[in-house]
Amino acid sequence: MSVKPSVGKQSTSTKGAEAKPFVGPEDLGGYDPAKSLGEPGRFPYTRGPHRTMYQHRLWTMRQFAGFGSADDTNQRFKYLLGHGQTGLSTAFDLPTLMGRDSNDSLALGEVGRCGVAISSLADMRRLFDGIDLGSVSTSMTINAPAAILLAFYAAVAKEQGVPLDKLRGTLQNDILKEFHAQNEYVFPPVPSVQLVIDTIEFCAERMPQWNPVSVSGYHIREAGSTAAEELAFTLADGMAYVQGSIDRGLDVDSFAPRLSFFFDVHNDFFEEIAKLRAARRIWAHVMRDRFKAKNERSWLLRTHCQTAGVSLTEQQPTNNIIRVAYQAMAGVLGGTQSLHTNSMDETLALPSEKAAKIALRTQQILAHETNVTQTVDPLAGSYFVEKMTNEIEAKAYAVFDQIDAMGGVFAAIDRGYFRRCIAESAHAAQKRIDSGDTKIVGVTDFVEEGAPDIDTLRITQDTEDEQVAGLKALKAARDQARHTAALDKLRETAKNGENVMPALIAAAKADATVGEMMETMKAVFGAYDGGPEW
Amino acid sequence: MVAMTTALPKGSSGVENHTSQNPPRILLAKIGLDGHDRGVKVLARSFRDAGIEVIYTGLWQTCEATMHAALQEDVDVVGVSLLSAAHMSVMPEMLRIREELGIEHIPLVLGGIVPEADKPKLTEMGIAAVFNPGSPIDAIIDTLKKLAAKHQPSDFDSLKTGYERRDMRALAKMISVIQADNDCAGWSPPKGVAKIIGVTGAPGVGKSSFIGKLGKLLRERGKRVGVVAIDPSSPITGGALLGDRLRMMHDAPDEGFFVRSVSSSGSAGELAPCCSDVVRLLDGFGFDVILVETVGAGQGDVGIRELVERTILLLMPDSGDSVQFSKAGIMEIANCFVLNKCDLAGADATEAQLLGAVGDSRPILRVSTIRNEGIEAVADWVSSPRS
N or C: fewer beta carbons within 10 Å in chain A? Predict the structure, then answer.
């Protein structure tokens, strides 16, 4: 039962794994890029989803932001837009991420700490105050309660007079990787995925410019997986959403063009580029051949990338600027559609305004000064990169076979397969650090004494107190009969197995809180207590 | 280079003076809603490799439940992992509960994202050490072992008095004493009235979650429940990952529900030598039901018969794999078959296969732990007189 693939144990960053000093055509095992690679914007899209890529349009510089109250984050959004950022990306605090209100007993000390606290439509309204939802694109990093936050967003848009079909943005809404890695799940896997499919169905019909799911490898990688595991698990999750939507009765081409992805860009420069290239090729084949999609846009893997938070060090934090810059370049050479560059102080605290600006400037320098944007996929035909792309692709297919043999993604979750693979890879990586095989500048080598001397952002207890007071006032002022009826309707809809999105929007407008809506659904769907741990 | 503060006196070399024969026991906890557990899991594995018994209590724990677990497990150190920046709220609460429970002898350490300015404050309030991302694991292990070595064994006579007064702290410590030398100076606990039930089954069938739900229902019926959860330890280092507890914990700490994690001797299928003593201690302490969860190695795992009065074998729908897997040995000794995860497809087929394999002379009960269904029938069986 304890299946563990031998995937990516020999990451190229491991000393000795790549013994040959150089790679030549003989290492490609008969693969000839001139014949098989294909062109950018053409099947299988290894070289990029679009024909002209950054020549025509730069990637979106999308810096994740959110802290404190809705008002605090609203100000940060306006600051970032004012400095040339081209899309918004919302970080929510832990209680919100877990679908709990700010006054929940487990929320002690966590309100507004790691993101913005949103418990109700009133909070959401303040978050986007003065920002035209018809002209920005907004990403929301939220999973278990994602459908509720989407309902809030739709309700705020309606108040602003923006029609749903004009809204652009992305909901992370990838619950499967929560079971594998990040642990922000609430309901059991099966109803959780049905809820995701509710949003896919709703967006296919009503919000055609919205990406309802961002299938995410980032958290899997940050939890300690190898690059190959990140790639394989993410695409396996993507396939589970596609299959679930088809089983719901949706035409694959009605929703597949709006599925997006989210990968980590870590330290191993060429491996990360190979991973992104392989991801596009695998997805194109899977969508065309396995799921019989006919629309070419359904075959495209479009992705957001974020530099590796786990690679940042507390020691000598300004070194992190350099790490982020190299990782960002790997993301761009890998052909990402949007990018978040981490701030240098993120192992210490949430980003300060200054650190967040340097992170954004890092992208701007990359985009406007290095000239890496002049041609698409410049590493194509490199023996080394092509070999690596083929190898990581093969590893991913081997993992798909293992998951299929177990009976699919749900069965594999039930057996603890993903968690065990990730935990063992994380432990192996740590052992390489402990043994000196993996060097970390400023931590294992080139060490300096003394504490880091940078100013960090502090969140005060005020946010928590204000949120708790605000919720109390909201509950006292709302129309109780309308509120009760809206939650009753939500319960009814969930019980009948109907799409809950319309009921969630109605409940949002009736001032039901995130926690109340989650509890209502929990009573129907049940709660998940975690799979096998080790 | 070590970004760490520690309250240990300089030059303390406690490791050699560790008086107990037990490996150091450390409870690792994540408090609150933060689900980032890469760090805590990497540490757990590294601690195991360094010969430490690690009890990991899982995600979303309250301060109160964590400190009650520390009391019951009689650990040498409690380590809290916090990446949510809630340390200045959580750690004072942990210290307050530690005092309330009278277990101030257990040092508390913290790992996570902790700003430099908070470190002196944490040390001053009584946190024994603070580790950051990047703290070398060897240094962390060294600090923990030194802290564990300061944990003095208690006087046996005063433990006896506490045990007779049904003081859970005394019970917890008594178990450690038994584990250390397997000898209680000729003393043996009184014979109690507990129904002693073994729960076994292949890895992954959900033994711990099942015990959690069964225990909860028995508590609602007014029974005092003791659980002994046995996990394998490494025969080389003596370290172990004891993770069963996290599936059993209830929302609120409960004086009538005691869980103790025990590492087995390491050889597959055999029970740790002290297991029977632990069961006797729980029996004498006055529990009504004692549930013994075993490694679940399958075929060879028949040692449980010596320890318990009756055995539940847990199975799950999986195209008959677990029935096949368990055919020899364990199938004969089971007194009751519980088919768990009946919410999954294939339950009917597995039940039919089971019926074909073992006949209908012993009960076959269908359960879904995740939906909390079917537990009543198992509780009825547990409470029924032995046949």
Answer: N
